[in-house]
Amino acid sequence: MKIPFNKPLVLGSEIEYLKQVIGKDRFSEKGEFSNKCAQLLEKKTFCNKVIMTPSCTSALEMCALLCNIKPGDEVIMPSFTHPGTANPFVRAGAEIVWCDIKEDTKNIDENKIEPLITSKTKAIIVVHYGGVICRMDKITSICNKNHLFLIEDAAMSIGCRFKEKHAGSFGDLAVISFHKTKNVQCGEGGALLINNQNMIERAEFLRDYGTNRIHFKKGLVEKYTWIEKSSNFSMSELQAAFLYQQLLELKRINENRLRTWKLYYKLLSIFLDEEFLPCIPKDVKHNAHLFYLMLKNEEQRKELIIYLKSAGIQAFFHYVPLHSAPIWKGKYDDIHLPVTNKVSETLLRLPLYYSMQKEEVEYVMQMLQKSFSPSVLSSKAGIN
Ligand SMILES: Cc1ncc(COP(=O)(O)O)c(C=O)c1O
Description:
13 helices; binds pyridoxal-5'-phosphate; Aspartate Aminotransferase, domain 2; disordered C terminus; 2 domains; alpha/beta; Aspartate Aminotransferase, domain 1
């Protein structure tokens, strides 16, 4: 049996909306479908304004502009994340202050944030790892107390909740990814969620090359003109039409993934202790974006990846910590992020995709179980 790590989701029904875009000969601009996607997301997340973007990275670029990030500013974020989280802030000249993560959820450790705040700190960026939302009650109060912008990187978190509030509804700003690896996708795509009312008008200017075209469209000005440095941050209508159909089906898609996730958890907990499995706090509703297990060390993970590959199963590590990346040429070598380093060395992601079959999960389990020795079975903690 061959089990890929991921299968980009194509429902088939996307074609109807694509035909409508092609039929109307209107491929770009903020047309009907990007508006529909944005309105649906506003309704689902209760956030004030959504702007559809070409990628999650471009939504993060808008965040850096909206927070006026400048050289000399400090931005706190986890190092256990995708380079896309950091790139826009680094390009804007900010100094990144890396915060360690928690052993249980792999999210930023809310108890380690405050000691990192200085008079130069401008923003905190949290990443909801695998769709498990960070402790946003504590984090929002830290941001409010210290007058800092809060940005949620909810790239993986569509449909997730913390204490019944939706991912993307806590920060001044939040971003979602619709890259082909995400629960709902359109190849490449993203969304910027704006909760801070004061940022909405400027975000609309920034989306349109830094012009006030939105005022022109509303008949507020005779001509539109260039107001500030920006870019083109609009999602194309072809992407939006494809995505819209998947957004309409979000609940069903996430429930389907959750069934697979729960089956993995049930079967793995027969021979692995809780600490080696994903941790979902009681007040978090996740979206089964990924399933991982924790191993004893990097060597063991390497061997297991090779073993699974020989059985036709693709399994992957996750994030190489950003603070240790070659781009820094050792700048952060003295920074001590023990949990980040450990998780980065020992986390293994298993295949998970929409409509993954029960037999496929069982096959992965059989192969994993084979790799666990009898002695390990009794101690429930390691691999041959
Ligand atoms: C946490 C996180 N942030 C940002 C990104 C970048 O998203 P995109 O590829 O849509 O630009 C990713 C990509 O997977 C991600 O995992």
